Amino acid sequence: MSDPFADVDAASPEFIEIMATALEVRAADPSMLPVIDGYLDRLSPPDGGLIVDIGCGTGGVTRRIADRFRRASVLGIEPSVALTDTARGLAGDRANLEFRVGDGAALGLGDGSADIAILHTVLSHVADPASLVAEATRILRPGGTLVVCDADFSKAALGLCQGDPLDSCARAFVAGSVTDAWLAGKLKPLAFAAGLTVAHFGTANRVVTDGMGNLVWVRMASARLVGDGVIGQPLADALEAEYMRRAEAGTLYGFLPFVTMIALKAER
Ligand SMILES: C[S@@+](CC[C@H](N)C(=O)[O-])C[C@H]1O[C@@H](n2cnc3c(N)ncnc32)[C@H](O)[C@@H]1O
Question: What is the Å distance from ligand 1's center to 56 Cα?
Answer without folding.
Answer: 6
